[in-house]
Design goal:
Helix 1 packs across helix 2. It contains two helices and nine strands. A hairpin with a 4-residue loop joins strand 8 and strand 9. By secondary structure, the protein is of the alpha+beta class. The protein has a four-stranded antiparallel beta sheet with strand order 1-2-3-4, covered by helices on one side. It has a three-stranded antiparallel beta sheet with strand order 7-8-9, with no helix packed on it. Strands 5-6 form a two-stranded antiparallel ribbon. Helices cover 18% and strands 37% of the residues. The protein folds into two domains: 62 residues; 44 residues, no CATH class.
Length: 119
Amino acid sequence: MMVGEFEHKKVTIEIDPNGGIWFRAEDKKAGPFDSLTDAKLGVVAKELGVSEKDVLLAKCKFREQMTAKVEYDNLGLVKGYKCPICGSELKFSHQDDIGNVWLKCEKGHYARKPAFGAS
């Protein structure tokens, strides 16, 4: 069972229950990787038989979909974060070993807290 799945054209990125990141294209799979950085474009593209561009675009879409939506109050201050998948409220889950803060919604979806100044 995968926790999350994000597709862009030919390439699908999946997250397994242990946090491993897998890339899939048709019947081929590459992974697991600990992070998107560990998944080198050339290596993944070669294993899947797709272009590096397709892998890069999938990684970009994945990052976009995994970033929490910021909710502001009437003064423009951060009020909270919403799940980019289902729209429910996110709460702190954990901080990974490279400093990303991860939030989790009541439905079990994870999202990264945006970097300072990001919206």
